[in-house]
Amino acid sequence: MPAKRTAILKQVESSSLRAEPLEFAIGDTVNVHTRILEGEKERIQIFSGVVIGRRGSGTRELFTVRRIVAGEGVERSFPIHSPKIAKLEVVRHGKVRRAKLFYLRDRMGRSTRLTERRSGKKDEAGEE
Amino acid sequence: MAVGLLGRKIGMTQVYAEDGSAIGVTVIEAGPCVVLQVRTAERDGYSAVQLGYGEKPRRLAIRAERGHVAALSSKRSKARAELKIDPLPKASCEPPRYIREFRLEEGDSPCEVGQKLTLGLLAEVARVDVIGMIKGRGTAGVMKQHNFHGLRASHGVQRHHRAGGSIGSHGCDRGNSGKIKKGKRMSGRWGNERVTVRNLKVVRIDEPNNVILVYGAVPGPDGGYIMIRQTKKKRKSQAK
After folding, report:
1. Are B22 and A79 in contact (CB < 8 Å)?
2. I want to staple B142 with a disulfide (CB 3.0 to 4.6 A). Which of A66, B59, B164, B190 is the partner?
3. What is the CATH number of domain B5-133+195-239?
4. What residues of A are in contact with residue B211 (Cβ under 8 Å)?
5. pLDDT tens per residue across span B18-76
6. CATH 3.30.160.810 in chain B, residues?
């Protein structure tokens, strides 16, 4: 795409980008605080889990958080620049060697012990 | 005033509305457009304004194109001067890439040749129509072109899986004539034709940068030329 058109798109998107970027890395365990509208009231919902990847660029950039709920893997993707994300806390850094942690999906349904061992590994590397 | 502008499709992206919801928008660079000619009912039989958008290098523009926007000395202009015919007003601009006319309706205030139109024209407009040429797809079958389901993959179907099936004869109102219903959707050339998308919501107008965002998709490829005008679709709320 010609530079001029790219520049216009960037300029348009810049107004929708987050002023202060969210700071987190792949493999981090995070709490995502999202604003939820319930009828008239707005409340904050927290989704916590491991960041297993981010994709896209500009206003469309997403990150995916995975957690295990009642023995079932749940993944949720959040637009990084969405104003509905009120806050993102990093609970723990994880040591990972790749940008997409899809291999975690294959480790679903194993015993909890295995999961603990893996998170133990992460602890070694993950000092704030 | 003319109710439209010419422009270029820049591309699609996503922005966030005030309530935090993400909306898919098409970014359009619209204007500035120069009024090249004003058509009047007396002289041309209809009233319209002819707008030009973009610049064509002079070396690529033929003499007629240059003469359309600026006064050139020619045999014809000299002959007309001798007959004391006033020369037509010219916009005195570079030859434009894209020229289209917008019809003027009664009540629209007229424009002057050479006037520059920008997005300020659409500042108060909530919904627009966008006209462009859709991408050419060449010869396309009914499944691609009209979203037909085709025939089955098995159960005796042979070499006919993407066909449209029966085109009907007795089942339709022309049954007795043995002719196919008019407008029957079939395969064939698709695309590369003018398409109007009506009633698109205007999301944002950035007048200094000549950029307008509209909700949803717009015909044509990125970089394609388009026309954008205040919508002509009558809404119930407007009818009141």
Report:
1. yes
2. B164
3. 3.30.160.810
4. 8, 11-12
5. 888 889 999 999 979 999 998 888 888 988 899 999 989 989 999 989 888 888 888 88
6. 5-133+195-239
